[in-house]
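Protein Record: Sequence and Backbone Structure Tokens
======================================================
Tokens: labelled as protein backbone structure tokens, with as many entries as the chain has residues.
Task: work out the structure tokens from the sequence, keeping to the layout shown below.
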Amino acid sequence: MIATLAAITLYLALPQRLLIAPRYVLPALELILLVPLIAINPRRLTRQTRAFRVLSLLLVAVIAMGNLVALGILIHELVYAGVNDGGSLLMAALQVWLTNVIVFGLAYWELDRGGPVSRTQEPRGALPMADFRFSQDENDDAVEEVADGASGTSDWVPTLVDYLYVSVTNSTAFSPTDTMPLSTRAKIMMSIQSVSALLTSLLVIARAVSILH
């Protein structure tokens, strides 16, 4: 909920020229999708229905599409509109980049091993194939203080923070770091995120800095 509200707030703060609809239309839709998700699991993620799964994935998709469209308009404004306000361009680029980190972190969290409810409520043998390989999955034969936190000995499962970390490193290094994508969809999503972050970091921010100078 906090991550979703942060993404909504960042979208609301974007300049109007980067939005394809009135400012509050997309955030209102996202809040409409968020409310029933909170109603189904008001405190902890312990229940997963088909409606919950569809709504949660749809919410992530709406946030992602809104941010990718904003990035596209931002690049168009930069290349064709002759934007001279470097300060606002830098701020918009940062907002798009941060939203990119949040939304892909949420997407990884929602999809990997059947989602957050499945990862915590079902036995490992019943989980779908993993989309990501975390270092904790391979630490069983490490030194004792490291092996104690391995998934095989401590029943460790990744949380939202772990997926946000994957998203941050993919947006800064433009490639996986300590967590490897395994499935085709994970590789496709990480590729889209890397390209989006690359465009934001190299094209938009570089142009904004040149305008400032």
